[in-house]
């Protein structure tokens, strides 16, 4: 019975010793704990301030982006409209080209005039659909060359410098393709 | 600094409640065992009372545990809610929202550009088609004229057939066929 009592007492002592240890540790580290807490609160506050700043900056950026996008879109729209206008003018120029060659060569078959016009249109479309600038320029030069040749043929025929019945140089250009 | 004492109190309270519940549980077992002992000793009346007491203690222990659990869950929920509505979380959410909005604007810009390009291309194609149709009409008209000129030299069926071909190719917008037809008529003369 006594040994049991002793054991219980020893156990109680151990328990109290653990509690004491715990209490000592707490008192020893209280300052440090408080400091840690304080630092954590400070860090949180800094983070909040930073987030706020970032948010404001982002809102500003969004406004800028919006205005920039709007202006760019408006410019793009105008450019597209201008493109369509240019295309229309090109088509009109090609029609004019056909009329002028028909006026010079009065007995020119409609099929030949049509082929010349069709070829010019094909060149124009190639130029329009070219992806990069270099290609575009290449096709543009081709188109301009072709148009100049047609006009030259018409002019020479009108001035009776040539006795050919057909615009041979233009047809040669078409056949070379 | 103010949060330290609250936590220091709160944690032992939970431990205390659990401890009480466990003590109640042990007490219930002790009472039930004693009731068994009394029954064995054949003392009348008392064992029933003891059993009831033991059961009540056992039940209260479980009830206490349950209530503690519920309270802890409630506390967790409240903490989560407070954290959700805290300034930091709110700011973070707002930042994310702004970022998403920015991304959305960028995408919208790209798609608007694509849309404008598409409509532009459609307009251009329409212009081209109109021009093609006009030119084909002119060619077909010329073929008609040629046909009329050589009409006396052709049989009626051939003339009608050629005329029909002309109309059909014009309607189909078949350039190659119209050109070959023109050549065919030219060779017929």
Describe the structure.
The complex is a heterodimer of chains A (177) and B (189). Chain A has 177 residues and is mainly α. Helix content of chain A is 89%, strand content 0%. In chain A, helix 1 runs antiparallel to helix 2 and helix 3 runs antiparallel to helix 4. The radius of gyration of chain A is 45 Å and the shape is rod-shaped. The model of chain A has no long low-confidence stretch (mean pLDDT 89). With 189 residues, chain B is mainly α. Chain B starts with a helix and ends with a helix. Chain B has five helices and no strands. The interface between A and B is large, with 39 and 39 residues.
**Overall 3D shape of chain B:** rod-shaped
Helix content of chain B: over 70%
What is the number of beta strands of chain A?
A: 0
Q: How many helices of chain B in DSSP terms? A: 5
End-to-end C-alpha gap of chain B: 112 Å
User: Overall pLDDT of chain A, averaged?
Assistant: 89
Strand content of chain B: under 5%
- What coarse outline of chain A follows from CA principal-axis ratios? rod-shaped
Order of helices and strands of chain B: HHHHH
Could you tell me the number of beta strands of chain B? 0
The total number of structural domains of chain B is 2
Question: Which structural class matches the secondary elements of chain A?
Answer: mainly alpha
Q: Spans of chain B of 5+ residues with little confidence (pLDDT < 50)?
A: 1-9
Greatest interface and its participating residue counts: A-B, 39 and 39 residues
Uncertain parts of chain A? none
Which secondary-structure class do the elements of chain B indicate?
mainly alpha
Q: Concise description?
A:
Chain A is an all-alpha fold and 177 residues long. Chain A is 89% helix and 0% strand.
Keywords:
heterodimer, A: 177 residues, mainly alpha, 0% strand, rod-shaped, B: 189 residues, disordered N terminus
Furnish the topology, listing elements before pairings.
The complex is a heterodimer of chains A (177) and B (189).
Chain A: H1 2-104, H2 110-129, H3 133-158, H4 168-176
Helix pairs in contact in A: 1-2, 1-3, 2-3, 3-4
Chain B: H1 3-40, H2 46-84, H3 87-149, H4 156-172, H5 175-188
Helix pairs in contact in B: 1-2, 3-4, 3-5, 4-5
């Amino acid at each position: 019975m006594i040994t049991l009592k002793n054991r219980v007492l020893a156990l109680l002592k151990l328990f109290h010793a653990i509690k004491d240890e715990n209490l000592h540790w707490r008192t020893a580290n209280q300052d440090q704990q408080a400091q840690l807490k304080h630092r954590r609160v400070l860090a949180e506050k800094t983070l909040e301030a930073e987030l706020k700043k970032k948010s404001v900056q982002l809102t500003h950026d969004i406004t800028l982006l919006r205005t920039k996008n709007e202006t760019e879109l408006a410019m793009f729209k105008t450019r597209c409209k201008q493109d369509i206008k240019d295309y229309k003018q090109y088509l009109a120029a090609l029609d004019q080209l056909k009329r002028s060659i028909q006026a010079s060569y009065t007995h020119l078959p409609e099929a030949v005039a049509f082929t010349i016009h069709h070829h010019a249109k094909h060149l124009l479309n190639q130029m329009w659909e070219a992806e990069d600038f270099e290609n575009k320029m290449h096709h543009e030069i081709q188109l301009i060359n072709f148009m100049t040749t047609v006009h030259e043929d018409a002019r020479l025929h009108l001035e009776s410098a040539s006795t050919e019945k057909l615009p041979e140089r233009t047809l040669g250009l078409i056949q070379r393709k | 600094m103010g949060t330290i004492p609250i936590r220091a109190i709160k944690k032992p309270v939970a431990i205390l409640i659990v401890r009480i519940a466990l003590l109640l549980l042990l007490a219930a077992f002790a009472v039930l065992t004693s009731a068994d002992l009394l029954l064995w000793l054949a003392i009348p009346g008392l064992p029933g009372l003891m059993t009831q007491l033991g059961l009540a203690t056992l039940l209260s222990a479980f009830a206490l545990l349950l209530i503690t659990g519920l309270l802890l869950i409630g506390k967790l929920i409240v903490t989560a809610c407070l954290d959700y509505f805290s300034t930091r979380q709110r700011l973070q959410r707002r930042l994310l929202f702004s970022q998403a909005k920015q991304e959305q604007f960028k995408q919208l810009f790209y798609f608007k550009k694509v849309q404008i390009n598409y409509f532009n291309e459609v307009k251009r194609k329409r212009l081209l088609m109109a021009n093609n149709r006009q030119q084909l009409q002119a060619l077909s008209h010329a073929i008609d004229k040629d046909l009329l000129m050589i009409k006396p030299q052709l049989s009626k069926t051939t003339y009608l057939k050629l005329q029909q071909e002309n109309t059909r190719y014009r309607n189909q917008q078949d350039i190659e066929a119209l050109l070959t037809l023109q050549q065919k008529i030219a060779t017929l003369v």
